[in-house]
From TrEMBL:
Gene3D superfamilies (UniProt xref): 3.40.50.880
An example Gene Ontology biological process: carbohydrate metabolic process
UniProt superkingdom: Bacteria
Designated name of the protein: NodB homology domain-containing protein
Naturally occurring in which organism (per UniProt): Thermoflexus hugenholtzii JAD2
InterPro entries in UniProt: Class_I_gatase-like (IPR029062), Glyco_hydro/deAcase_b/a-brl (IPR011330)
Amino acid sequence: MISIRRSRWIGIGWLGCALMLGILLFLPPSFRTRAQGGGGVRLALLTDPGAPNPFGPYLAEILRAEGWVAYDVVSPSSLSPTLLQMYPVLLVAEIPLNTTQAGILRDYVWNGGRLIAMRPSPELRAAMGWNTGGTLSEAYVRFEPGHPLVQGLVTESLQFHGVGDLYVADEVEVIAWFYQDRDTNSGFAAIGRVTRGNGWAVFWGYDLARSVALTRQGNPDWVGQDREPDGILRTTDVFSGWIDLERIAIPQADEQMRLLSRLIREGLAAAAPMPQLWYFPNGVLSLLILTADAHGNPQSYYEGELASIESFNARVTFFLTLNFDSCPSAPAPDSVNAWRAAGHTVGIHPYVGTDEWGNDFRDFRTSTMRTRDRFLRCYGPPLSPTIRTHQIRMGTGWVGNARVHAEFGFPLNLDYYMRGDVTARPDGTQAHGYLTGSGLPMRFVDLNGEILPVYQQLTNIVDEQYMAQPFYPDWRRDADQVIAMMDAGLNAYYSAFVANFHVDYYN
Ligand SMILES: [Zn+2]
């Protein structure tokens, strides 16, 4: 793996990086408890797991991804003026509130609190004096270019998923507008702020949590549909017709999360500063993570790829198929141990279902389990905690792959991948960027709001896009676009870029 810090390239091991990310993103509850005991927590999330919109708890995942690791979660039933006094900033999920609860929030703002509310309930809108004029769904938002809080963030309109309430912009400090389509301003505010008494309140006219989840994980209504029709259900199928290819070069979900962080930071600044952890280890601006899928290749292919990678002082994770009962002749176990000692890692790349020659590798779960067991039998531990499924096949359900990976101990899933028709423009050229709207690792969330112990990280640099073949005739053009994407990652779109350079081609 290579870390990027401005013009400096540093090679460190992927596993070390994963562990550091884990430390950054996954601080144990004891940290939060200690912080609370010391009066250190100044950020609270008001959510209700029983609310009709189940994605409220996912706002906590957004906070963690953005480096806000010390926060408290409070429920509507525990709301009181005394409780809220502890928190200069209160983030409110899309939850029902009665008039009494809305009144407590109104008084909180008047007394100096900073409130940010996702898709506020009618009672909260009334308490704040906010007016709406209808709704729109599956449309766009655009940050107000003149607002100081959005400077340095993206200026193009961005997709959001779900329903948005159209806010009347009069007497509101507009931070973002709803757009009916990519180019047409609705004239209504999507995100806006008002000052009330000594505090302020922000309405976020759509639910950021739901929108981020659906941007990252695709349309759940399309699960099981072969929308990119090739006879194989892939993770990409739920994105076909979901991602606007004119916006794919932007990490759309990440930019919207960054705006939330700016609001939180400004709200906290009025009270006292609070640490916000950076996305990546050692303050690097972006990461390049090298992976290599292998499909029963000869030993010389691995050695060829390693020679190339080590010439850049980089490290790689090999993913092996191991689809048959006997251990493969290559790579040799002694070689695998030597690679590990040199800082490389080796994991699995399970075949699932039936291939074009009629080999039946069984269902997703069985195949993943068998491949893992064979790996441990043939090579022994350590097995890479990351995994990529052959042909990026989709298991059962919206988070089916992640459920299996959780069961068998793979906390990082690389099955979301830029390839094929889903990212091809009508003229056949390949669109590069962020299929999932994100360059950041975040845990999967299911439709019931359950957060799974598996991180999703997009693979968006894929060698097949640079090789001379009918679908990618102009490899130089594509290479230039990916280089531009990585440059943008150093300037604003801070990302982990995962590359796949197949072992197969090192012949
Ligand atoms: Zn494969």
